[in-house]
DNA sequence: AGTTAGCACTCGGCACACGAGAGTGCTAAC
DNA sequence: GTTAGCACTCTCGTGTGCCGAGTGCTAACT
């Protein structure tokens, strides 16, 4: 729906006023706080139209107007001006992120913390998905008399490790042989193929070595499994209880929702690129009915990869928060670009 | 203070009634639900005494009595019978714990989850402190063109790793030499000595190799640092919002408190062995004013090590929860005993 | 046709009162 | 030391009345 200029101004003023105070905005206060020079009655007429068309609602007859979800959506799509973080904030963010850029996990943890600190809401970042990653190299190290460590390096540069117990005494000779055999058998194998049946056929080919390999194979399978899962970094969950307009019920819902990593990952990956804001029912999840989710996909080498996201209440400074999410997603992408190294 | 038998019975009935219902208990209901065969008036007299002595309080004149913190403390110390988990629950716990007993971290994460699931409250476990641990062995692996991985095995069997970037191309020859040199220089060194000045003197002794070692040394220093810190595993934080009698203020306090790992670790390690229950102000922390903390130290090879703990509301089934904390701490200790392997 | 002034109207929030019910403390008798 | 009886206190839910903010409508104006 196309709105007239004045109605746009009024809608914008109401959305921003409501965001700032949490109170429905009346025709009189609206005129005081904007430069619009018409009478309150005119504003009321426009407000009545906007209410009829679903952009505003009245909590009760003698209250002002607050924006509906539709109204906020229109504001975001047509009226809002994205606010990038200030120069000082950008400098701070870049400096912090660079200092954590040793591994992707660390960088993403740091990014989540920064975003949460900056906005005061709950931030979530994801590692890049490992689509099509293959096994690049395997290391086997002895770490104890009966324990060893399997390290898996993928073609995407990801490194994951896992300890496993052995029912034989671990010696340098054995780990060396194991490592050689495993690399020979598994180098180049896609992570997605590291299934139980496949491992059994691999194990069958080991002949007399079979005695020493089972635990290592199980560990490698676990690592491959785990490496394919998207890792989530969450920061500022405790802030959920400090968010404006968040009642216990909403807080419970949001916390419960975030307990399921799969659920969160699925939601964050349900848009393909750029910045997206979902408000209330747009999240398509009953537990997020009163929440906002702002998320951005970051890119590595020009390809859409992981996600940077912010969970907040329905009433938030969308312009500022979306600006921050977008900025941090870009920064994370750039740093991960530099990190690619195989 | 020594109480008469009937008063003990009455206090116990009030504490347990209050725990079960959350409502102050009246003289009449008390008689209905216990086998005490005296008149309500007698009970009222005793209740008046118990109130005067600080064990009970009245929210208002026409309400029954609820236990004060002093009353609950007396109940825990003198009246309560610890309830161990049922045979079935024990079997379940043991089976779950065994299946996670590959690394101490995993086991403790699993223990926290079990404790939280069993009680419905928020559980925290800690890894054993690494007092006096020394470097047992160091592995250096190439993981990318410019990245490598340092793995540190301590004399206590702990294994920790960290990736680091190198400003030279990482080859098998270099990692092998590095590993040899680092092991020679650092094996047997206590983690607590891995400080910056010490590392500088070590670096100085490397001669021409100096070019290749700085990043590895920094990584090892970081690992040593990190390995000396107590790791906390927290489970069921989202349950804080579902606990009975927990208002938003208390929930905020508890969540904020748990944000600081040092703070939590300090509190958990402030008793030396066995089972401890702290209620309300006994926690000596304003944010835990309305909370209960039940914690137990587990032992490895007969020596007090880490801690298993439960954060809950003031009103909880102390007998059951303390029983569970105690049981799981024992189970964790036993499994860690078996895991020691150097 | 759009804008404005005026005015009656609606409704939430607050204060207050009132009765019912639960549970007590006190007194006098056992 | 224990008990029965009774008056008392306090919370909670309900109902009433008033205030004020903000509206919608109508009629007049540009």
Descriptive overview:
The structure is a homodimer of 342-residue chains. With 342 residues, chain A is α+β, with helices and mostly antiparallel strands. Chain A is 46% helix and 18% strand. In chain A, the strands form three sheets. Chain A has a five-stranded antiparallel β-sheet. In chain A, a hairpin with a 4-residue loop joins strand 5 (147-154) and strand 6. Chain A binds a DNA duplex (30 and 30 nucleotides) through helix 3.
Q: Report the strand count of chain A.
A: 10
* Main interface by residue count: A-B, 33 and 33 residues
User: What is the overall pLDDT average of chain A?
Assistant: 95
What would CATH call the class of the largest domain in chain A?
A: Alpha Beta
The percent of residues in helical segments of chain A reads 40-55%
Measured distance between first and last alpha carbons of chain A: 51 Å
SSE order of chain A, as H and E? HHHEEHHHEEEEHHHEHHEEEH
- Based on CA inertia axes, which overall geometry of chain A fits? elongated
- The fold-level CATH name of the largest domain in chain A is Beta-Lactamase
CATH superfamily of the largest domain in chain A: GAF domain
| Low-pLDDT regions of chain A | none
Number of helices of chain A: 12
**Assembly category:** homodimer
Largest sheet of chain A: 5 strands, antiparallel
How many domains in all of chain A?
Answer: 3
Neighbour order of strands in the largest sheet of chain A: 7-3-10-9-8
Write a concise keyword list for the protein shown above.
Enolase-like, domain 1; Beta-Lactamase; DNA-binding; 342 residues; 12 helices; 10 strands; Arc Repressor Mutant, subunit A; 46% helix; alpha+beta; 5-stranded antiparallel beta sheet
């Amino acid at each position: 729906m196309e709105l007239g200029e004045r109605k746009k101004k009024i809608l914008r003023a109401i959305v921003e006023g409501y965001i700032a105070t949490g109170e429905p905005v009346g025709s009189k206060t609206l005129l005081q706080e904007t430069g619009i020079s018409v009478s309150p009655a005119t504003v009321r007429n426009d407000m009545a139209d906007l209410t009829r068309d679903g952009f505003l609602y009245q909590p009760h007859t003698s209250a002002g107007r607050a924006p509906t979800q539709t109204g906020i959506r229109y504001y975001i799509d047509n009226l809002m001006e994205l606010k990038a973080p200030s120069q000082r904030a950008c400098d701070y963010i870049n400096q912090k992120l660079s200092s954590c850029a040793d591994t992707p996990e660390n960088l993403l943890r740091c990014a989540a913390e920064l975003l949460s600190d900056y906005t005061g809401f709950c931030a979530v970042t994801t590692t890049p998905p490992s689509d099509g990653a293959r096994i690049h190299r395997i290391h086997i190290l002895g770490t104890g008399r009966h324990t060893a460590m399997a390290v898996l390096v993928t073609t995407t540069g990801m490194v994951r490790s896992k300890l496993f117990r052995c029912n034989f005494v671990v010696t340098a000779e054995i780990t060396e042989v194991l490592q050689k055999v495993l690399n020979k058998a598994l180098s180049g194998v896609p992570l997605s193929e590291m299934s139980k049946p496949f491992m059994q056929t691999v194990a069958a080919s080991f002949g007399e070595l079979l005695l020493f390999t089972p635990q290592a194979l199980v560990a490698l399978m676990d690592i491959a499994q785990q490496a394919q899962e998207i890792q989530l970094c969450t920061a500022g969950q405790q802030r959920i209880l400090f968010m404006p307009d968040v009642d216990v019920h909403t807080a419970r819902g949001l916390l419960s929702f975030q307990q399921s990593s799969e659920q969160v990952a699925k939601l964050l990956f349900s848009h393909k690129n750029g910045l997206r804001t979902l408000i209330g029912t747009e999240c398509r999840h009953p537990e997020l009915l009163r929440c906002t989710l702002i998320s951005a996909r970051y890119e590595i080498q020009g390809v859409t990869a992981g996600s940077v996201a912010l969970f907040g209440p329905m009433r938030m400074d969308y312009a500022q928060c979306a600006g921050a999410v977008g900025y941090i997603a870009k920064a994370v992408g750039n740093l991960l670009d530099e990190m690619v190294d195989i």
